[in-house]
Each structure stands twice: as structure tokens, then as C-alpha cells.
Amino acid sequence: MTFKTGSRQRLFILLVSWMSFVADADNMQLDGNLLLTGMDAGSNDNFKSGRAITLHYNYYFNNWLAADAGLLLSGKTLEESSEDIVGDYRTNIQTQALLLGIKPRYRLESPYEFYGRLGLQYWCTELEVEEYFGPGIPEGSSSATDTGYGYYLGLGVAHYVTEKFIVLFELSHFKQLDVFEGDSAYPFDLAINAFSIGVGYRF
Amino acid sequence: MITTTTTASRVSAVSTAIVSVFLLNACDIDGGDNLPRVPEQGLFMLADANRHEGDDSAQVAAAVFNDGEPVNLVGGDLFEARTTTERVLLKQGGPVEGSYAASLPVDDSVQDVFLDVVHLPVEAREDRWYPIDLLNTDPGPGELVGKSASVSFPPAVTITAPFPDTVYTSISDVIDISWDPVSAGDLMRVLAAVECTDGLATSSYGVVVDNEVQLDMDLDDGSEVISLDKFIYDLNIGSTTIQFISDAALVLLQELLNQLSAGNIDPDFLLKKREANPIESTCEIRLFLQRQRPGQFDEIFDSGRVSGSSSAEVIVIYHPPVPFN
Questions:
Q1: Interface ipTM
Q2: Domain A30-202 coded CATH 3.40.50.12780
Q3: What is the mean pLDDT of residues B311-325?
Q4: For chain A, which end, N or C, has fewer CB atoms within 10 Å of the first or last residue's CB respectively?
């Protein structure tokens, strides 16, 4: 009981301190972005365009540099169907990533701001393959998931609708390195290029 | 009223042209000679490994037909061709629908090529981009896996006549083909790849002259006389009226296109779209003389045509006679 009371007190103090810090700081930003993505596994893959969302939290150390933490969630991105000597096949890929990096910015006199993002990502990617062989032969699908590290880059422009509310346009590049390295003799690097539009809130 | 008449004449011209195009197509060169004579019943094996003069690889092609229809090897089944030192998988499309082909490195020491149907689910997918060893739906080996054939290369072919770029000017001419006869028992045949141009249009096709086309063609006796009309056709033979209508329709249609495009269309647009008539065109005839040696195939097949072959080529030219005015 004593322990519980002590924990609650500490948590409360921490929360209040953080809130007062937040209320005074006005140096943080949350933004959410909708991405139109193009995936490239570096070979003869032929992915259709896909969609993803990112959520970013920024903590500004000063007027031009912030820490950038984020989350990337992609939808299932389909590849065009292909045919070879084995049969017809189609892959799809889905990925999530935790992002951690820096975000330099340059605020203009006008209500515009240019910014960049640069950081590392920890990703979790699932690849699925559907195969069809023709009449009388059982078709099937198989999937595998891998995790690993990579990096991300971004360049964007923000428009301050008000001092708190921002609209963002961004070009991003996410690179996942050595996907299925160790599990397969055929690993690949996955590049995700994206254009995004989003909204942000400064507090 | 004038508009109605003009529209009616245009419709008439277009209709005539369309009918003529169909008739022209009906007179097209029959490419049937390039296709294997596959029996309509039973399991049939077709395979050939050909080594062309000077090449350091043999072209290997194989197919299986069931009741006349090609059997697709899928799910990781495929033909493997091997010598004592080299091995390739036949993954490319072959010259015949449903056939598979590959280049197999060979040298002068190679005598035999072995063909097997194998089940290699990973190697068969090697052209795919994703981790094929991890993501692989393997339906297991098909019924043909384990079946095999083997062929031997006959001695190389050396053509002694005609000389390269010999010119012929009439389809009544004959081509005297001579070669060094080496062995008894091997079968000879001539294949030709013909490319023709009349200055505007082009046409290209293949011809096979074997024992079914010309009696005793298959004898390895060192010479064969083949009439040029085996290689050069007249698309309009026996259809003078149709040709007249077709020419008239082309002129009308071209005139219509000129009017519709206000003179911006190529005046020879339709002439370039049709096929050149070989007899009225300059044609390059690549003659391939092939020596074939029948091979062996598995007893499971009801019939088959399996052979190893060596070939050499010579190019001759056909120039159409200049018409007198």
C-alpha cells in the first residue's frame, strides 16, 4: 500500500512537472502525415503505389533544431502480377518502423518554414507471396517477417496557418537495409519513397 | 446532298479496303512449315540440341505434348540439359509454342547432351527478386519429373557451295548446295530465314526443306539441288482479281486518309503497313544446312522427335527481275 501511494505520488509529480514544462515550453510539435508511397526492392520488382501514415513528435532544442521521434505505418502494398516458367505470382509488402533522428528547420519571416529530417529507423516488414500454377495444381501463399535497422531522410515545407496549427508537405526516403539477411540467401534493401501531406500542432 | 454522297463514298471505300485486308491476310505466307508435326494422340517428346559452326555453345530446346497440346512445366518442374561438365536449365521460351530453350556451353570434346525433367523449386524461381528460398509454395514434382532423353552431336557441317552472297534473279533458279559428306545414317535438312524488302514494306519468314518437302533431301550425300521457289513465294499467285481489288482499295483508302489528315499523312503509309511480296522484293536468304542424329527418349513417351544436330550457314540473295516497260 505504501509502495502504491509512493508510486502514484511520484507519477503525479512527474506528470504535473511535465505539463507545466509543456505549458511553458511551446517548443514541441506533433504532426501526422498521409504518405503516397513507392516501394523499390532494388531488383525486378514492380510494386504499385501504396499508402502509409507517419506520426512525428518533435522537441525543439532551439529555434532551428529539434529531436524527431516517429512511427511509420504502411498499408499492404501490392506488386503487379508476374508470370514466369514456374507460374503466376504476386507479392505484397507491409511495414512499420520506429523513427528517431533530428529535424533542422529554417523559419522564414512569412508564415513558412523549411525543414529536413534525418535519422535511423527500426523496422518490422512482412512480405507475402501468392502463387498460381494452373489448373489441377494447388496454389498457395507464404509469408515471412523480418526486423532490422535502416535510415530515413525527409525534406519539407510547413505553412503556419496560425502560430499553433501547421500544414506540412514533405518528400521522404526510408531505407530498410538487409531485409531477410540471415534468413535467406536472397536478402534485399527496401527503399520507400514518399510524398506526404500532413497537419501539425505546436505546443 | 453533297455531304451525303461524300460520306457514302467514304464508307464504301473503307468497306472495300477492310474486305481486301481480310483477303490479303487469307493469302499470307503459311508459316506451318516451322511447326513440329505433333501427333494428336499420346505423349510426344520434342527435343533438339544444335551446335552451329564456330559457336562455343549449343542451342537446346525441348517440349512435351500431350494429345497435341504442349505440356507446361510449372511449379518448379523444368528441363535440365547437361554435358559431362556443364549444366543449364531451360527457362526461356523456345522456337515452338510450349517449348523451352537455353544455351549450353560446349566445346569440341562434347559429344552427348542429356536432358532430364527435374523439380527444382528454388532454382526455377531464381529470376524473381524476393527471397525465393524463404517464400516458396512448392506443389511438389509433376508427373514428368524423372523423364529423360539424350542426344549426340553429329560431325560438323562444312558447306562448299553456294558461295556467300550468290545472287539469284528468278524463282525458277536452283540453288546447288554442296557440303562435305561425312557419315552415313545422319539426316540432312535445310532451314532458311528469309527477309525481304521492296523498299517500303518488309516481310520475314522461315522455311524448312526436309525429306517431306523434297525427296531424298535427308541423304548425307554431299549435294542437293533445291529450287528457289521453295524459299521465295508469290503472295498473289492465283488471285489476280483479288490483287487488283486490293491495290485499288489501298489507293482509295490512302486517298481517304490523305483527305482526312489534310495531306499530313505519309503518302506511302498503307504501302508500308502491308507485307512485302517476296517475289517482287529483294530477299536475303540465310540457308542453314543441318545434319541431324536421332537421339533416345524415355519409354513413357508414345512417340517423339529427339535429335542432336550440327549446322552451318550461307547467305544468298534474291533480286527480283527488272520488269520491261
A1: 0.83
A2: no
A3: 86
A4: N
Cell numbers representing residue A146 in the block: 523480418
Domain boundary among B152, B176, B200: B152
Cell 508469290: give the residue: B234
Of A86, A141, A143, the CB nearest to B76: A86
C-alpha cell at B164: 556467300
Residues of B in contact with A128 (CB under 8 A): 135
Do B165 and B295 sit in the same domain of this protein? yes
Chain A contact set for B121 (CB, 8 A):
86
Q: Do A127 and B130 touch (CB under 8 A)?
A: yes
Q: Return all residues near B102 (Cβ < 8 A) that are at least 6 apart.
A: B60, B81, B88, B89, B90, B91, B92
Residue B302 has pLDDT above 50, yes or no: yes
Mean pLDDT of B97-107: 93
- Strand A88-107 with A112-132, pairing: antiparallel
Domain extent at residue B291:
155-235+275-318
pLDDT of residue A4 exceeding 50: no
**Number of helices and strands (H, E) in chain B?**
3, 18
Q: At what angle do helices B240-260 and B2-26 cross, to 10 degrees?
A: 130
Cα–Cα distance list, A37 to A32, A196, B310 (Å)? 15, 8, 54
**Residue that the C-alpha cell 532430364 belongs to:** B116
Question: Domain for residue B66, yes or no?
Answer: yes
Which helix (H) or strand (E) segment holds residue B240: the answer is helix B240-260
pLDDT at residue A169, rounded to an integer: 98
Provide the CATH number for the domain around residue B307.
Answer: 2.60.40
Instruction: Parse chain A into domains and list their residue ranges.
Output: 30-202
Tell me whether B258 touches chain A (CB under 8 Å): no
Domain count along chain B: 3
Within a domain: residue B173? Answer: yes
User: Is a pLDDT exceeding 70 seen at residue A41?
Assistant: yes
Share of chain A above pLDDT 70, in %: 88
What is the C-alpha to C-alpha distance for residues A117 and B39, in angstroms, rounded to an integer? 68
